[in-house]
């Protein structure tokens, strides 16, 4: 069962890594970062809501007092980390933003120790170090020895905020699984995230894009593959795997994103990025339990 769970988490990371295909397509149609994030969570919410209404409407029931779980996964995690992430990209660079985002496994390891009493053995810490170093190589964020790039404090905090918000999905999702089905958690995650983001976005200047066929293809693809399906697989995998281990395994996402940029968008892939890919994959393999 645990082997299957690890495969589900790896698959979710692969799907998350393909999001650049759809995001670039929507950027090409004139949408802003915040608009793309909102379109992502709203389309996924609609897909999940329609699916459950026609197949398993009983899974839409939840106790109001348990809405804290979905505030955590939807607003504190999904909406918050996306906002922090795109602000950091805008004010610094993609490389710095992605590197700071992937401090998430470290946050998960600490929070899992506090809330779930998960162990912090040497093997887990070593795997964590490998994946963090690998992500730094993959994203091209390689400060020279003896010096460090200057990142203004506000953008350092937004970058770390993205990592922290990203980590919160694993923590709140793991807790919610004790009471609710995976489909329930995913659906209300996207609904609560949509409720938080829709008031912040204005689509008046993008009305023309809605009449193009390519928009609906990109929207459907983004709503299904790197959103609905990816979160379903990841949350399902969390049922069998420690939260801290899951967070390390899913760092395969930037590896896939880099490969997508190379094979689809013909962006350069350096030797250091290949080293980073190997480090991440090594960390992902090492973290898995052996019977």
From TrEMBL:
Residue ranges occupied by any EamA domain in the UniProt entry: 4-139, 154-287
InterPro entries recorded: EamA_dom (IPR000620), EmrE-like (IPR037185)
TM annotation in the entry: 7-27, 33-55, 67-88, 94-116, 125-143, 155-173, 185-203, 215-234, 246-265, 271-287
Domain of life: Archaea
Keywords attached to this entry: Membrane, Transmembrane, Transmembrane helix
One GO cellular component term noted in the UniProt record for this chain: membrane
Pfam family, one: EamA
PANTHER family on file: ACYL-MALONYL CONDENSING ENZYME-RELATED, MOBA-LIKE NTP TRANSFERASE DOMAIN-CONTAINING PROTEIN
Name the record gives this protein: Integral membrane protein
